[in-house]
């Protein structure tokens, strides 16, 4: 389940990060979740050049507690793909089993494919440009979390075979993901996702 989030700032000078938007897509690129989120504390910096979020986006946004519950229900038991994904987990106050996480910012497979030095952390924008020939995060309206989630998904797919083999070797003989013919099929989705038509 590739996901991406956008942060806004709360507190003095907007220095505290809070979730402002979350987007989740399935393996096939279908959007499962894409909602603006109202933080628990008043927003003091919308960080629009990076977040793409403006004041009016949060007028009818879902409260953080509701969004957190909805997001955790979707991600439970799923392999989660994202770029610097542990930042997303932190802002959601969630723990996800490490063997069920694929962070495109840290895998050596993408660095190798891009011809970058081992151990280097590359931005999603740079990897998407180099490996997908795709320009993201380029508009004046700020980053789009759906666009970022799709880029992380497509980067994962480039190295999926080698990455999953590596994970299986690390964990022993137990498969780390559902077989591909079951990957993110609706039988694994929470009922709310199916009924909401997201």
UniProtKB/TrEMBL annotation:
Residues annotated as domain Exonuclease: 7-165
GO MF annotations in UniProt: exonuclease activity; nucleic acid binding
Coiled coil: none
UniProt subcellular location: Nucleus
Keywords (A to Z) from UniProt: Exonuclease, Hydrolase, Nuclease, Nucleus
InterPro entries per the UniProt record, alphabetical: REXO1/3/4-like, Ribonucl_H, RNaseH-like_sf, RNaseH_sf
SMART domains cross-referenced by the UniProt entry: EXOIII
Gene3D superfamilies: Ribonuclease H-like superfamily/Ribonuclease H
GO terms for cellular component: nucleolus
Keyword RNA-binding: no
Name of the featured protein: Interferon stimulated exonuclease gene
Species assigned in the record: Poecilia latipinna
